[in-house]
Amino acid sequence: xxxxxxxxxxxxxxxxxxxxxxxxxxxxxxxxxxxxxxxxxxxxxxxxxxxxxxxxxxxxxxxxxxxxxxxxxxxxxxxxxxxxxxxxxxxxxxxxxxxxxxxxxxxxxxxxxxxxxxxxxxxxxxxxxxxxxxxxxxxxxxxxxxxxxxxxxxxxxxxxxxxxxxxxxxxxxxxxxxxxxxxxxxxxxxxxxxxxxxxxxxxxxxxxxxxxxxxxxxxxxxxxxxxxxxxxxxxxxxxxxxxxxxxxxxxxxxxxxxxxxxxxxxxxxxxxxxxxxxxxxxxxxxxxxxxxxxxxxxxxxxxxxxxxxxxxxxxxxxxxxxxxxxxxx
Length: 329
What we know:
Strand order of the largest sheet: 2-1-3-4-5
CATH class of the largest domain: Alpha Beta
Order of helices and strands: EHEHEHHEEHHEHEEEHEEEEEE
Strand content: 25-35%
Number of helices: 8
Distance between the termini: 41 Å
């Protein structure tokens, strides 16, 4: 049984672990992975080797990720594989493509909008999905799966989880915006608050009184929000490290800010899990939150992380600050 794994270069570490796992669970499985050392001999045409391997493979596994979508070669490889293997196997009613999604890509959306949208996609970090694939190899392809499969699978999932956590950018998958109490009078939302993205952070501008009124009614709050439609699982970090912390840096440019609140919300209803209050000094502030303080099932279902200020939290009506270095330590 020869399996072709298609992937983006940036996902090499995860893919090689998967290839090693498949070959460990059965001596009958041989995996071709272009990033594996020695897969493509020096001097051999890369593109021709890919097509030759497609011709010699029994199954094709595209590892769908954000980087995969962004790679023109990966998308071309996927299209060619689908067309070639469809003609080769569909008349016999055989399955030939088994996509796996790499987080933060959700398996339910991995191939939506493509001719392959009806193909069942698994998640590379889902134990049940990998078990299902191994059962297919055994029952449909006659591959002999060796002993100790559960131990090997748990070991693989642990390794993959460590890779994900090490490389995960908290901003990936987040919809970023600013919000405020819009019961106040305003002409344009950007008059009250706005956000700009830089290479090393998110800069927030706010103005509690943009029209310089003497009898102004301030917004009750202004919030910079990271919204996760597919939810963010922070419990995984705590499972790996009991001392895991959510850390970030706040640059108070104009000394107009004296306090900020950080809210963690969960579920589709955006219920507040915990709120943390921090005094802010002029200049750089390095802040941290222990995930242990939020330990609950809700920590695996984070919908929003909000950085919130209120009228009592500012020294001046107008100001600017930057949030950067958001990560889990």
